[in-house]
Amino acid sequence: MGLFEKLVSIPALRPHLDQDEQAFVEDPGWRAILQKVKQLKDPATLFSIFQEASPTDEKQRIIRGYLATMAAEAGPGPVELPCVDYAGCYLSRGELKLTNPSPEVLPCYVGMGMQASSPECRILVQGDVGDYLAYRSARASVEVRGSARDRVGMAVGEGFIRVEGDVAGGLAGNTHNTRLEVDGSVGRIQKDNSGCKILVGGDVHWSIGENQSDCFIKVCGNLGMKYRKSGKLVDMAAGLSRNSVLLVGGDVWGNIGSRMEIARVLVWGKVHGQIHVADNQGGFIYLNKKSTPFYKRIVRSIGGDIGLKYVSLKESGYLFAEDPEDVKEIILG
Description:
Layout: H1 3-7, H2 14-17, H3 21-26, H4 29-36, H5 43-52, H6 58-74, E1 79-82, E2 95-99, E3 122-126, E4 140-145, E5 159-163, E6 167-171, E7 178-182, E8 186-189, E9 193-194, E10 197-200, E11 212-213, E12 216-219, E13 235-236, E14 245-248, E15 255-256, E16 264-267, E17 284-288, H7 294-302, E18 308-311
Parallel strand pairs: 1-2, 2-3, 3-4, 4-5, 5-7, 6-8, 7-10, 9-11, 10-12, 12-14, 13-15, 14-16, 16-17, 17-18
């Protein structure tokens, strides 16, 4: 029996391992037990157990990931380890540098439940990751020098998440007071975010979910391109509210403005869909005159859309905007 097998077999852990998976995730008792294991206080032994671990179920994978957390929290400086499922889960102090050399293996739940207590506490991943990056973190601080698959930054309380590559699936979702940066493209921005800054350097292929409250969202590329061929356009960022701002540097293949309230939308490209204007609720949509044919501007003006403004937008001005106050500088007239 290897060291990891011996570790997960200690009697004190048995009641916790007998729980269902969800109860185990939310139960801090097993973590307190591991913190008291004498052998795990020796860095060499801890590293050895982590390296040789071959977990056979999800709860054992969580334990292996937490061993990486224990190494980072006990270390005097950054700790370098292979990136595995749940690596850095519940991390509250220390710095963890993870490496994933294989594009075929995508570790999931990296940084789950993170509670970064200081700016020095962070997780840096060299390579790609899978799903649920920083999932349900009270305070996240994660940087991925690669791409992520799906559900990045979901249900995060506050913090900072950066992905240098692409996010194939969803970004955010029930996330609050968090800065999320993706240098590449994103599949979709999920719904029900508040107080977030979401900065996407490329396209958002599908949509932006509803109920973005007090959020600053910047998409430097196109929005909704996946709907272009199907012709089935959906509402983008419906329910945008509480002084939220949405900037789109390219075209929008969808409907904008639905249920918008005290918010602003600025589009540099064309809108290939319906525009719903509700200026009586404080919502305004700014379309770039250069991208909107003159006859369309005339038709909509006759229709009385007084919450819709045709303006000259500073070329590439969206690239430098990171705050609602910056919007004032990119509307030329």
